[in-house]
Each structure stands twice: as C-alpha cells, then as structure tokens.
Design brief:
single chain, about 75% helix, mainly alpha
C-alpha cells in the first residue's frame, strides 16, 4: 500500500526500493529458518543431553546471517529515506 502511494514520488528510486524489498524477504527467510532449526534443536535437547556440534554451528551461522541481512536491509532502507547522506 505504501509503495503505491510513494510510486509517484520524485525522490524515491524504484530500483533501490526493489533491492530493499528483496533483502527484506531474504532476511525473513533466514530468520524463519533460524527459528525453525532452533525449535527442532530445543525439542531434541529434551531427550539428548549433548547436541551435535554441527547443529550448534548451524544455529550460530544462521544467527549471524540473520543479523547481517537485517543490518543490510536497514542500511538500504536508510539510504532510501535519507538520500542527502553521501555514500
């Protein structure tokens, strides 16, 4: 809805908006994968005392990827809104 309202704005770069939207979707996918994998590990940890190191590393990698994708989306969103700030 907001994209339709702002479609005619002269200051809005539609290509940058499309990239921002794609990175936001990527962030959502990474974070949903993190939640799902963490939930499975939590369920498995009820019966097993030690979790596999691969699973722990996978959660760590997904968490770092989620933070990185979130920061990238925030940076792109800020660049959309604050075009006066040089890059």
């Amino acid at each position: 809805m907001t994209a339709n309202v702002l479609a005619d704005a002269a200051w809005l770069n539609l290509d940058a908006l499309a990239v921002h939207r794609q990175i936001g979707i990527l962030t959502l996918i990474v974070l949903v994968a993190l939640v799902g994998f963490s939930g499975v590990m939590l369920f498995v940890s009820r019966t097993t005392r030690a979790l596999p190191m691969r699973a722990i590393r996978a959660v760590l990698v997904l968490a770092v990827a989620g933070v990185g994708a979130s920061m990238w989306a925030v940076d792109l969103g800020g660049a959309l809104r604050h075009t006066k700030v040089g890059r």
